[in-house]
Structures are given as structure tokens and as C-alpha cells.
Design a protein that fits this description.
Strand content of chain A: 5-15%
Number of helices of chain B: 10
Order of helices and strands of chain A: EHHEHHEHHEHEHHEHHEHEH
Distance between the termini of chain A: 25 Å
CATH class of the largest domain in chain B: Alpha Beta
Strand order of the largest sheet of chain B: 1-11-6-3-2
Oligomer: heterotrimer
CATH architecture of the largest domain in chain B: 3-Layer(aba) Sandwich
Chains: A alpha/beta, B alpha/beta, C alpha/beta
Number of domains of chain A: 2
Structural class of chain A: alpha/beta
Shape of chain B: globular
Largest sheet of chain A: 4 strands, parallel
Shape of chain A: globular
CATH superfamily of the largest domain in chain B: NagB/RpiA/CoA transferase-like
Mean pLDDT of chain A: 96
Strand content of chain B: 15-25%
Order of helices and strands of chain B: HHEHEEEEHEEHEEEEHHEEEEHHH
Strand order of the largest sheet of chain A: 2-1-3-4
Low-confidence stretches of chain B: 200-210
Number of domains of chain B: 2
CATH topology of the largest domain in chain B: Rossmann fold
Low-confidence stretches of chain A: none
Chain lengths: 240, 304, 462
């Protein structure tokens, strides 16, 4: 089985080691992983900000880079949502590109979703035994794609305890450009998450942007919060 | 203001020109519970904060009422209630009475509601701090759809669904009861209440009209006559046609139409043992068009 | 034209942190009740059905308006039509004069806020009493409503205690029951002496000409029953085709708004008092109001928002609304539905700022009982703001520049290297975007090596 890895620009720059862990994990499960070097950005920030011409350019580039691969896997819930759910909307009215967008959407997976639904892996190993985690459900990946159970079940099968957290599926406040355009509200939303967080060893999520946002806010508040990307934890589950 | 009407409708039509509206959906999904309708009704009314009492007969309800009413000094009572269910209390207007007593047309089990009519007066349903509502067990429907369907044709000026005592959580999210409407709602479900209406007060019955044609024969004789409503308001029978009776109110000059079909329906009801003691009952049992005048016509013909 | 949301939100968070706690508490409570209530029924089936009825209604709105008007008039109601606030005010002015009105009781109506009924009445020397307890509270405080269903949720118990103590003379430590009793006394007197009651309408049934009102306190029943004249303000979109449609809409509205099976008091009004009825208003006037709705109806991307039944569920689910409450939006309608409707009803320019009172989390779409595609519509307003040139040149440059860079992978890889070289810059407050980010989060810290570098050095060979 051959998978094209779409690292996503955010993970490339800010969660590089976690992205590398994703590749290591996939390889350890017998998957051949290739990295199409021309890849860059799915176009989500521009799409969310209403700059659709710019977004189309980036989406088209992505379409071209990943043409012809049977599986495209991303260590990011929100970027997967962009490719699957939102990119087709950019091309409504442009039949060929719309079809191409749907086609790519049909081949694109978020990492934990790929493990559970395509590789049918339920148990990676017990490398997370005794770890207490809080799991943040990213908005797009949970509401638009319905991926809620997969990451949680993989972590629990690895021995981690996902501690109940009342605000676990509320928006963290990142929202892309929103974090900059309405910073006070964005930070108040992060505070809501942080103030309700139970005592855990680490906060994790399939979305690096959310983790960056909450970790950054925690730091400016002087809170001692450890964040780990889902991909790194899943690799640790397997690798001990 | 008709210009505004044309402008608005014009804009709406233009907005819809190129759009193809979807079809109106048919029957919606309906929840089915295991419990019987009455049981469900009691559960839901209590969950909504109301008290519920069940009686197997009007007599039993009447006995209960005599004792229960002692906690009140007076009551504002619905004219739709039979004598047996009028509390033994001095009458007071709704603005002053500590208790209001209503006769519901129906009840809904799935929402825990009673259906009230403006025919009995609205203030007695709203102003007294305690509200007692009687309803016949046979009128408890499982689904709201059933009640809506049944009462769609004969609408008084206001129907109301009451599902509990008045409540508000507007003060810091803390629930408070009895903010404007009654703070206490008691619903008494009585088996056989509808039968009690019909045999309520004995009335001298005139010659029963045995057929619709007999009614038709006697109506033209009323043309040009001045009659009085039960309240004593004079009106003139202006014109009797094949299917209608047209009347004009003496004081205001307003005209109303009574359909012959409605009078025939009333006559049939009376012939089968029904009672129509006044315009309010006429409205409830026959039709809600010009009931005061229709009743007066029936009275003139000796039917009521 | 700026709506001021950004500044107002910031001010609310900094100057009145108690609003955030009160609103969070209230909305979590409402949303929790809604979730439980949806769970008791087949919510997906009812939401699909209700959405279908509303889309059909909107597609034939002219015919249903005509049918509703005919039904209302057959019951003896007088029907007026108002294109805008000025028309409504002219109609009310005439009614106040015709009926010699000196005192009005009002049921809660967001439409009455849109067309500014209270200021008009006050200018005519008419005494106005808001009778919904939440509306009464904010009337005493001199504020506009901050939420569709709970207009005073931004006020905690202590604040209300102090307000009543000052305005009504209740004890400074009065319990909620005492506060409510004080309001009841004042308003009871108003109900029984007012010449006119003004309400909105939750629905008007076209088939039967029935005005439908839903509430929990009983004040709307009294407002529409006690005074001699009842005036109902009805947005032209607030219709339902059939009487039987009320079955689902009454239950779905209650479940979505507060988690109840049905509103405690539902009024089904068919004209003024009839012959033989002991009481009730002598006159019923219904005013159909457009005020921008026909423009929204003509907008293919936005018209579905006219399905709104004003349940407030989207406000309760919205994590952005939760932080500030409704006043920060500076408009009659706040929360997700406010963001979508306001630019359409009033001025598209408002979308430039209001469109960002949203993180696109899509929680609202999950709860809307009539399936209004709110997130997509908010996004469409952002797109239109860009198309209309309402965003800053800097922002356009940034996105177009980024697009140019990432479609030329060599430049992207160059940018990646520069990011690591200029690491100290990522905390600089004077850089437009990075500076704003750093202020709240600390400086951006890229990974020591980018993934690309790790791939080249370590992973590529395997």
C-alpha cells in the first residue's frame, strides 16, 4: 500500500517532529510513504478569510501535486476538512475542476481515520500506559468529517486515560485569521478551554493550530501545560 | 397603506421569479410511547409543574371539589361548566378571585397541555393565582396533531394551550413560578364530563323540529321581524334565502350571516337529546358564526 | 460603516468580565437542555421536516401572505402593511390617536426593536411597559436586549437585586421570588389599565389566519387579552402554510430554545373578541413588516436565513457569543443568525466586521432546528467583503502574496528557511500579524528543522 504524505504547511513549520512521527508510524505498519516535494498549502486560511481567488490557486496546486495517488494522508484534521469538504465548493460552476476536487476528496484521510478505517488497525501497542490525556476535538474534523471516535479509541487502546473534560468539543478560538482579527475574544475562548482543563499529563489533538493556540495562551498566563500532537502520541504508543 | 402592500408583494414576487420551491412535506415523524395516552398526559403535566387529579365520574369530582375549594375565599368560574363542577364559593371577578376554574376543550398527552377557549373568558384563565381546569378523559389525545386537526374548523377568538404554571428564569437563571399567569395549575381529568354537559340543567324544550325541511318552511316567516338575543340586544332578520339568514344589528347596523346548514345541525343535535342553553354552547357545539343571533332564531322557533 | 463589534467585544471582556460568566452560565444551561430535548425525539427527522416546510413557504411567500391576510380579515382583524420602520411608526401613530392610547403593554418582540417602537411611543407621550420579565429588567436598566430568548442573561442575580432595590424599592437582599412578585405587582396594574397591547408573532398560519404566540410567563396572553386593542407586529417571513404545521413547530421551537416539550402558554389568536365572549380585545390590528426581508429573500445565498424561528439555539451553541453576550454585536440580532441577517436586512458593509464575530466552528449548524446553513453564509459574507474591496490592502496583499509563494514551491522552501533565520523577528510587536499573535501567545516558535529538512536528511531514503 502506497500513501502520499501531505504534511501541511503548519505541521511542516511548527510540528515537524510530529509529522515525522506520523511517517515513522505509517512505515512501521508496512505502508510505503512518499512525499511529493512540490506540495505546499491546501489554501484553508485564504478560504476561511473569503479570499477565494487566492484559495483556488492553492487548491489547484494541491490537486495537481496529489493527482494519481491512491491515498493521501494528513496529520491535520482541519486541512483534511479543507481538501474533503470545502475545496469542492471553491469550484462550483467549474465542472472539470469540481470533479477533480471531489476525486481528491475521495482519496484523502486524516491520520487516525486512515489507521482505523483503511488499515483497520485498532491496537498500536501499549506505549501510552498510565498516561493521562485531555483530548481536544477540533471543530472541523469532528463536525464536518465526523471523526470523533477514531483518535480516542487509538489512544485508549494504547493504555492512555482520556480524562473527561466538559469543554472538550468547544472551539478553542483559533479560527485562522479570527485569532488575529478578534484577538481578545479568541483568547477568551482559549481561556474557557484552559480553565476547565482537568489535571493531565498532556493536552492532545489532531490539529496543530489548536494546540499552538492553547499552548501559547497557557504560556502567557504562566500555566504549566504540556501539549503533544496526536501523531507523536500514536508513534509513542507503537514505539514505546 | 395599500401602496406598501403592492410594493412588498411585488418585491416578494420578483425575488421568487427564478426559484423553484420545494414541495410541502407531508406527515412528519411522530413519537410513539409505550404508555397509554392518559398515563403519558399525567406524567408530562406533572413534569411541567402542574398538579393532576383523576376522577372516574362527575359525582366523584364534585365531591372532591367541595373539599378542595375550601382553601379559597371566592372563584371566577367558566360558564361552560355543569353545575356539579362549579365550586361552592362566592363568585368574584377574575381580577379579584384567588381561584379561576376552566373547562378545557381537550388535552394533549405528548406535550402535557390543556386546550382552553376564549368562549369561557380569557381573564379567568390568567389573572387568579390558582387555576383549576376540568377536562373529559375522552378528550385526552396522545398527539398534538389530533387536537389541532379536531379544532381547526371552529376557532374562537383565542384558543390557548396551557402546559404548566407560569415560570421564568430571567432572574440570574433561577426559576421562579407565578410571574404573570397563575403560579398554580391543577388539572382534573373527569370521565363522563361531556355527558354531564348535555344533561346539565333541565330546560323547557319546545316543539322539536323533526326534519330539515320543517326548519326551512318556518324560517321565511321570520323575515322582517325584530328579535332579541339572549342578552336582550335587538336585531332585524333582513333576508331569508335558500341557504342563509341575514340579520342586521339594530344599534350598530352591522350585518351577519347565519347558514341554514348550521341551524339544521343545531336542530338535529337538539332532536337527539343535546342541549344548547345559549350562544356560547351554540358556538362550541354547532358553529362559530354569529352564534348570538343564530341562537335567538332557534329560540324564536321554540327549539331552545 | 463599521459595526464596532471588535472594539465592543474587547471592551466587554476587559471592563465587564461578569458578563462573560453570566452569559457562559446561561448559554451552557440552555444548550445542555436543548441537547437533552433533541435526544428525546428524532431531532434529525423533525429538523429536516421543518426546514422543508419553511423552504416551501419562502418559495411561495406571496401567495401565503395573501392567504394569511384573507384569513385574518375574515376573523375581523385589520391588516396593515409596512415596508420599513417609518411605515410602522406611522401606523402606530394613527392607532394611538384613534384609540386614545396613553398606556401600552408589550410582549417581547425583536421586530419591535428593529422598527424602534418604544422610542416612538415615548415621543407620543405614551407610557410603555415591557411585560416579559427579562425585557422588564433591561427596560429598568435602560439597555437593549442581549439575547433573543433571555434578554437579560448578561445580568447576574446581584446586579438585578441592586437594580430592583434602586428602581422599585425592594430590599437589597431580596430573593428571586420577591423580585418577581414586585415586577408582577407593577405589571398587573399595567395590564389592567393599558388601552393597547403590542406583541410580535412567532407564527401566522396562512390557512386559518391564526396569530400564534409562545411564552412561559403568561405576560403575552395578558398583553393580547386584557387591553381593548391588540396590535401584532409580524415579519413577512413568520408564516406557516397549515394549522397542522404547528404540531412540529411548537414542539421543535420549545425544545430548541429551552429544552421544554412545549412553551408553557401558547396563544392561537383568531381575530378580536367574538359576540358572546366575556372578554378579549375589541380590535385586532396585524402589521405585516418587510424592513429588508424582501431583499434577503431575493438573495440566493442568504434567503434560507428567513426560515429562522427565533429560538436562540445558535446563540446558545456559539462559543464566540458566549464570551461577550449580545450587546457587543451592536445590533438587534446577535450571535450566528445576527451575523448572517444583519448585513442583508440593513447594509452589506456591516459584514466586514460582523463576519469575523465567528471562528467558523460550525456548532450553530449542528443545532439549528430549521437547518439554516449559517457557517456557509457567514463565509459567503466574508467572501463578498473581499469582492467588494472592504478588506484592507494589506490583508489582500498578504493572502495573494502567500498564494503566489506556495504555488511556486521553490519560493515556499526559501520562505521556510527565512522563517528559521529570522526567528527573533517572530516576536516583534510591530509586525502586523505576527505581532498581534505574539501579544497573546508569545513568539511563534518554528520547529528547529522543518519537516522537509527531516525528510531529506533522515526519512527519504527508506
Amino acid at each position: 500500500m502506497r500513501v502520499a504524505f501531505f504534511v501541511t504547511c503548519l505541521a511542516d513549520q511548527f510540528f515537524a517532529e510530529a509529522a515525522a512521527d506520523a511517517v515513522r508510524l505509517l512505515r512501521s505498519l508496512g505502508v510505503e510513504v512518499v512525499f511529493p516535494r512540490e506540495q505546499t498549502c491546501c489554501g484553508q486560511p485564504a478560504y476561511n478569510a473569503g479570499h477565494w481567488d487566492a484559495a483556488r490557486k492553492m487548491a489547484l496546486h494541491t490537486q495537481q501535486v496529489f493527482a494519481g495517488y491512491d491515498y493521501v494522508v494528513l496529520p491535520s484534521g482541519s486541512c483534511t476538512t479543507m481538501v474533503r469538504a470545502y475545496t469542492p465548493r471553491l469550484f462550483e460552476g467549474d465542472r472539470p475542476r469540481y470533479e477533480a476536487a471531489l476525486d481528491l476528496a475521495g482519496r484523502t484521510y486524516e491520520l487516525s481515520e486512515f489507521l482505523v478505517k483503511v488499515l483497520d488497525v485498532g491496537d498500536l501497542g501499549r506505549g501510552l500506559e498510565g498516561m493521562k490525556l485531555a483530548y481536544h476535538h477540533g471543530c472541523h474534523v469532528s463536525r464536518e468529517l465526523g471523526i470523533r471516535q477514531e483518535p480516542v479509541s487509538l489512544l485508549e487502546a494504547a493504555g492512555a486515560e482520556i480524562v473527561p473534560w466538559e469543554a472538550d468539543n468547544e472551539c478553542c478560538g483559533f479560527g485562522g485569521v479570527f485569532a488575529v482579527k478578534n484577538a481578545p475574544v479568541s483568547l477568551a475562548m482559549a481561556d474557557r478551554k484552559l480553565d476547565t482543563l482537568p489535571a493531565v499529563d498532556a493536552l492532545t489533538s489532531a490539529d496543530g493550530a489548536c494546540l499552538m493556540h492553547m499552548a501559547g495562551r497557557a504560556r502567557t498566563r504562566g500555566l504549566n501545560l504540556k501539549v503533544r500532537h496526536l501523531a507523536s502520541l500514536l508513534w509513542e504508543a507503537r514505539n514505546g | 397603506m395599500s401602496k406598501a402592500r403592492e410594493n412588498i408583494l411585488g418585491r416578494v414576487r420578483r425575488a421568487l421569479e427564478k426559484r423553484w420551491p420545494p414541495e410541502l412535506p407531508g406527515e412528519p415523524w411522530r413519537p410513539e410511547a409505550q404508555e397509554g395516552a392518559l398515563e403519558l398526559f399525567v406524567t408530562n403535566m406533572r413534569a411541567g409543574g402542574a398538579e393532576v387529579e383523576l376522577f372516574k365520574s362527575v359525582a366523584a369530582a364534585g365531591r372532591w371539589l367541595a373539599g378542595w375549594a375550601e382553601q379559597f375565599s371566592a372563584a371566577a368560574v367558566s360558564p361552560l361548566l355543569p353545575a356539579a363542577l362549579r365550586p361552592p364559593l362566592p363568585a368574584a371577578p377574575p381580577e379579584e378571585a384567588p381561584l379561576g376554574v376552566s373547562r378545557a376543550l381537550a388535552a394533549v398527552a405528548e406535550t402535557g397541555s390543556v386546550l382552553l377557549t376564549s368562549a369561557e373568558g380569557r381573564r379567568l384563565q390568567l389573572l387568579p393565582p390558582a387555576h383549576l381546569v376540568f377536562v373529559d378523559e375522552a378528550d385526552v389525545h396522545r398527539h398534538l396533531a389530533g387536537v389541532l386537526e379536531k379544532h381547526r374548523e371552529e376557532l374562537p377568538s383565542a384558543l390557548a394551550l396551557h402546559s404548566g404554571p407560569s415560570r421564568s428564569a430571567d432572574i440570574g437563571q433561577i426559576m421562579v413560578q407565578g410571574v404573570h399567569g397563575p403560579g398554580r395549575l391543577v388539572v382534573a381529568v373527569v370521565r363522563g364530563l361531556n355527558r354531564a354537559d348535555r344533561s346539565a340543567s333541565p330546560k323547557k324544550r319546545g316543539r322539536a323540529v323533526r326534519s330539515a325541511s320543517a326548519l326551512r318552511e318556518r324560517l321565511p316567516a321570520l323575515q322582517g321581524r325584530t328579535l332579541k338575543t339572549k342578552r336582550g340586544e335587538p336585531f332585524v332578520v333582513v333576508r331569508v334565502t335558500e341557504n342563509t339568514v341575514r340579520v342586521r344589528v339594530a344599534s350598530s347596523g352591522k350585518e351577519y350571516t347565519v347558514r341554514l346548514a348550521s341551524l339544521e345541525k343545531a336542530a338535529a343535535l337538539l332532536a337527539s337529546g343535546g342541549e344548547i342553553p345559549g350562544p356560547v354552547a351554540y358556538r362550541r357545539l354547532v358553529a362559530n358564526e354569529a352564534p348570538a343571533y343564530a341562537w335567538a332564531i332557534l329560540h324564536e322557533l321554540g327549539l331552545v | 460603516m463599521a459595526s464596532g463589534y471588535k472594539a465592543a467585544a474587547k471592551r466587554a471582556l476587559v471592563e465587564r468580565p461578569e458578563v462573560r460568566s453570566a452569559v457562559t452560565k446561561a448559554t451552557l444551561h440552555f444548550d445542555g437542555n436543548r441537547a437533552r430535548a433533541y435526544g428525546e425525539i428524532d431531532a434529525e427527522a423533525w429538523r429536516d421536516w421543518a426546514a422543508g416546510v419553511k423552504r416551501h413557504l419562502l418559495g411561495r411567500l406571496d401567495r401565503y401572505l395573501e392567504e394569511a391576510e384573507a384569513g385574518l380579515r375574515a376573523h375581523g382583524a385589520v391588516v396593515h402593511w409596512a415596508e420599513n420602520a417609518a411605515d410602522v411608526q406611522e401606523i402606530l401613530r394613527a392607532l394611538v390617536a384613534d384609540y386614545g392610547v396613553s398606556r401600552v403593554v408589550k410582549g417581547k418582540s425583536m421586530l419591535s426593536e428593529e422598527v424602534e417602537v418604544n422610542p416612538l411611543l415615548e415621543s407620543l407621550g405614551v407610557e410603555v411597559f415591557e411585560t416579559d420579565l427579562g425585557e422588564y429588567i433591561i427596560q429598568l436598566a435602560g439597555e437593549p436586549p442581549s439575547h433573543i430568548v433571555g434578554p437579560a442573561i448578561h445580568k447576574g442575580l446581584e446586579e438585578i437585586r441592586a437594580l430592583f432595590h434602586e428602581k422599585l424599592g425592594t430590599p437589597a437582599d431580596a430573593e428571586p421570588t420577591e423580585l418577581a412578585a414586585a415586577a408582577r405587582r407593577v405589571l398587573r396594574d399595567a395590564f389592567l389599565s393599558a388601552e393597547m397591547g403590542i406583541s410580535g408573532a412567532n407564527f401566522v398560519v396562512a390557512e386559518t389566519g391564526t396569530v400564534v404566540l409562545v411564552e412561559n410567563e403568561g405576560n403575552i396572553r395578558l398583553t393580547t387579552s386584557a387591553p381593548r386593542v391588540h396590535v401584532a407586529l409580524v415579519g413577512i417571513e413568520k408564516l406557516l402554510p397549515r394549522f397542522g404545521d404547528l404540531e412540529v413547530f411548537l414542539q421543535l421551537l420549545a425544545r430548541a430554545a429551552t429544552g421544554q416539550k412545549i412553551g408553557t402558554f401558547v396563544s392561537l389568536i383568531n381575530g378580536p373578541r367574538r359576540e358572546g365572549e366575556p372578554d378579549g380585545p375589541e380590535h385586532l390590528h396585524v402589521i405585516f413588516v418587510d424592513n429588508g426581508r424582501s431583499s434577503v429573500l431575493a438573495d440566493d445565498e442568504m434567503y434560507e436565513a428567513l426560515s429562522c424561528i427565533r429560538c436562540g439555539a445558535c446563540l446558545n451553541a456559539c462559543p464566540v457569543y458566549r464570551q461577550t453576550g449580545g450587546h457587543a454585536y451592536g445590533q438587534v440580532y446577535s450571535g450566528p443568525i445576527g451575523v448572517v441577517l444583519t448585513p442583508g436586512l440593513k447594509d452589506p458593509g456591516l459584514a466586514a466586521e460582523l463576519g469575523y464575530a465567528c471562528s467558523l466552528c460550525t456548532a450553530c449548524a449542528d443545532v439549528c432546528p430549521v437547518r439554516i446553513p449559517l457557517p456557509g453564509q457567514i463565509l459567503a459574507w466574508r467572501r463578498r467583503s473581499v469582492e467588494r474591496g472592504l478588506v484592507s490592502g494589506g490583508e489582500k496583499l498578504a493572502f495573494n502574496g502567500y498564494a503566489a509563494m506556495v504555488t511556486r514551491p521553490r519560493f515556499y522552501r526559501l520562505g521556510s528557511k527565512l522563517l528559521r533565520l529570522g526567528k527573533g523577528l517572530t516576536g516583534a510587536p510591530w509586525l502586523p500579524v505576527l505581532g498581534a499573535w505574539a501579544a497573546g501567545h508569545g513568539p511563534l516558535e518554528p520547529s528547529p528543522k522543518s519537516f522537509r529538512e527531516i525528510w531529506e536528511e533522515e526519512l527519504a531514503g527508506e
